[in-house]
Amino acid sequence: MAELRLSGVAKRYGGTVEVLRDIDLEIARGELIVFVGPSGCGKSTLLRMIAGLESISDGVLEIEGRVVNDIPPAQRGIAMVFQSYALYPHMTVRENMAFALKLARKSRTEIDAAVAAAAEKLQLTDYLDRLPKALSGGQRQRVAIGRAIVRDPKVYLFDEPLSNLDAALRVATRIEIAQLKEQMPDSTMIYVTHDQVEAMTLASRIVVLANKGIAQVGTPLELYDSPENEFVARFIGSPAMNLLAGRITQSGAQTRVALDGGGQALVAIPTGAEDLGAAVNLGVRPEDLEETTGDYVLGGRVAITEALGEHTLLYLGEEGPGDARIAKLPGTRSALRGTDIRLTARPDKLHLFRDGRSMKPR
Amino acid sequence: MSPALQGLVMIVLGVGGCVGYFYGANLLLDRVIFPARGAQAGRNINRANLVRPWLFLLPALVALSLYLVYPVIETLRLSLTDRSQGGAFVGLANYRQMAAEPKFWEAMRNNLMWLVVVPALSTGFGLLAAQLTDRIRWGNIAKSIIFMPMAISFVGAAVIWKLVYDARPEGTEQIGVLNALYLWLGGAEPQQWLTLIPANTFLLMIVLIWVQTGFAMVILSAALRGIPEDTIEAAIIDGAGPMQVFFRIKVPQIASTIVVVWTTITLVVLKVFDIVFAMTNGQWGTQVLANYMYDKMFRANDWGLGSASAMVIMLLVLPILIWNVRTARREMR
Predict the structure, then answer these.
(1) β pairing state of A255-259 and A290-291
(2) Domain that holds residue B294
(3) A104, B239: Cβ pair inside 8 Å?
(4) Which terminal CB of chain B, N or C, has fewer other CB atoms within 10 Å?
């Protein structure tokens, strides 16, 4: 049964400014769902609507089969971890964690037990009597998570919980969250981030939000291997997928594409005779490109090289870095700078998009 | 020369003098006394930087010691002398005499009452106004109106409220709002509000509360806006209702600001003079210390007793002042 179901959910401000529309999503118990998307895509708004901090303009939100559109946040069975931790500065760690339980008029012994258990799980036992200002960023983050845990919610909501931490701590805390999820296999988590790596490593499924709606939902590798549209193709993976304009010259079980840039590509995607001559975009990930002397997908002069040790990024073409075609070759290949290069990729590694949609059958 | 022109000239001379002093003194320090050149340039720059703060503080220090420290010492001295004996040293005789006067204890008692009621109500109403006006569209207009009395002098405020409390003989049209209200509510005859003990003291307090609420509101409103929105949202998710959010999340987070506002108003209250002076002049049991001092000093011309009461006021203000400065300093850190 779906733990959380969104049907036709929309968000409008002042009746006219539409932020989200037609969000349909089912989340099963125990999933860790990550919302990703460019800034301003409404991913935080969607999370806040689930939390009850924003009203739902249209559609239905159900948690465990109960419509909660008009139910106050505290009674939805959710807990939220904020980007800024949002700890109560005048309360000790213990009081911070106990606050919700106190408001719920739980007994003293019950509160103490819940706080102790959460503190144990998060290695906060020694800090229970400290004020938040006497804690490090990572500890504060753990208190914020602890505050959520003690309430034993059905759904945990994380709003970019790691973006205030420095890079090293972010990786460590990311792993801690993954471990925490393993310890609590039945709890459902929704996690908002703009960081792809967080999304790819944590998610059981990723929801990519763009253009006021859901661009694609899938496991991290589904999104990487089979993006349904150009937006997801470009959004997932770093550096982003190259999109090369071309025309279908031969259809069948495999499709041949003549590229406007002069290259040729054989793609392991079946097309019909009606697609012959259609204008398409060929998608190829930088890491799938390899050097060739024969037919090439991408060719040109290497404008810039970036040697990162384990691999080298090549920027092809005269345009600025924003429009450049990028290839990722193993090892250090700085010597390629200024030379002409021909690159190709295996047919099963190539993607085809027509009118922005993937032509891959599903 | 017309007085207005004279004033203008004085302003120009005064401001010009200040600018001239700071600019000239600074120039003198950098160019002549410790020039930043030659063999000792580095040492000179360091020395100039050591001297500079004192140079800039000098006018303030001089003015403060001339107009604040000296009068305190002189007041202390005067409080130990007797005018009728040609200024002879009489020890604590003035203080003893004061302690024997019922009017002094009335003033002490009233001051204490002012001290309890006015800061509490001003801060309370200010907090309420700050919270309520932050949430509504026309809140800023409401705020301006509530803040406006701050721009009125205490004497002006006293005159306004004297009209509110005004009483006309029975049967004639009442111009006092309070009496109009009182009669409308079924009161038998117009009351001379300012002669009613002990209500009159509270009626005087209302004037100061009216003035100070705006101050409290402005400071507390800024503090309330400084509270991270996240902590409020977290509390809502934790199940806190509006009252709990206000009292358990918002108020504790601005506690130190509330203390500063409270103590600042307390200092104003301890020095309260104009309102009582202009409205009842301490009659009908409304005497306060500052007005008592004025009575002794300038009406009875007894500078011994007047100085003694001034010392009492200072001793009462001092601990709160120190505390206030300390809290404010901690705030800034």
Answers:
(1) unpaired
(2) 100-332
(3) yes
(4) C
Counted residue by residue, chain A has a size of 362
All residues of chain B having their beta carbon less than 8 Å from the beta carbon of residue A52 are 236-237
For residue A27, the number of C-alpha atoms closer than 13 Å in the C-beta half-sphere is 31
Q: Are residues B15 and B164 in the same domain?
A: no
The 10s digit of each residue's pLDDT in A284-334 is 999 999 988 888 888 888 888 899 889 999 998 766 555 678 999 998 888
- pLDDT tens figures, A74-83: 889 899 999 8
Q: Give yes or no for residue B93 having a pLDDT over 90.
A: no
Token pair 């004037």 is found at B207
Structural domain includes residue B52: yes
Are B52 and B118 in a shared domain?
no
Asked if A50 and A5 count as a contact pair (C-beta separation under 8 A), the reply is no
Residue B233 near chain A (CB below 8 Å): yes
- Domain termination site, one of B43, B65, B87: B65
A vs B, Cβ pairs < 8 A, gives 62
Per DSSP, the residues of A298-313 read: EEEEEEEEEE-SSEEE
- What ipTM describes this predicted complex? 0.82
Q: If DSSP codes are grouped into helix, strand and coil, which group holds residue B87? A: coil
User: Alpha-carbon distance B36 to A230, whole Å?
Assistant: 65
Last residue of a domain, one of B44, B65, B86: B65
Judge: A90–B240 Cβ closer than 8 Å, yes or no.
no
Q: Is residue B104 part of a domain?
A: yes
The C-alpha atoms of residue B62 and residue A142 are separated, in whole angstroms, by: 55
Asked if B155 reaches chain A (Cβ–Cβ under 8 Å), the answer is: no
* In a domain? residue B77: no
Bridge partners, residue A25, by sequence: A6
Inter-chain CB proximity A100 and B239 less than 8 Å: yes
Q: What is the pLDDT of residue B333?
A: 67
Same domain, B156 and B285: yes
How many domains does one find in chain B?
Answer: 2
User: What is the greatest pairwise CA distance in chain A?
Assistant: 76
